[in-house]
Description:
Blueprint: H1 2-19, H2 21-41, E1 47-48, H3 69-72, E2 77-82, H4 85-92, E3 100-105, H5 113-121, E4 126-130, E5 138-139, E6 142-146, E7 161-165, E8 178-179
Parallel strand pairs: 1-2, 2-3, 3-4, 4-7, 4-8, 6-7
Antiparallel strand pairs: 5-6
Helix pairs in contact: 1-2
Amino acid sequence: MMQYMIHRSRIAKTKYFLKDRMNFLVQMHREIQSWTRRVEAKGLRLAVRLNLTSDISWETFPILGGMNIMDLNPSVQFYDYTKSTDRVWKYIRGEQPDNYHLTFSLADVNAHVQSWANLLVKGCNVAIVFSQIPKSGCWHNWPLLNGDKYDHRFLDPKRHIVALTAKARAKKTASNFIVGLSV
């Protein structure tokens, strides 16, 4: 029952975003401000991951005074995974908001090693889904982090592969999304 309610809520939010984007963004900003006040009252810093099942470029949507959600909330740490090489290269070049951390999510394990290795060389981490996380601690000579232990990617050291295991329905997929141990 709970999964059904979560699914319906996600659909409703997506429809709201698509039909009334500006009000959606303003409401999101107000909710983040509210959470920021609660968290900062406890001496903590709020961290927000806006994309869970999407890859929306939130930084491109002006809300108030032409500012995006990150600019409007400079004390908040935003972070996301992205499959967009354009977005991740902007991140590497420092063209994303300072409080926004991106981890590149490898979508095709058959992608040429050099393409994602270039991202690692430049300091961006690369998330890869494995059928099982390699025990060796490295893959293609790059150090691994177990990304299943925590989600706060902005805390990770640079130039690492974030090793993840498939979750939920992705466990049953037969695609180039998951690296088998034989790779």
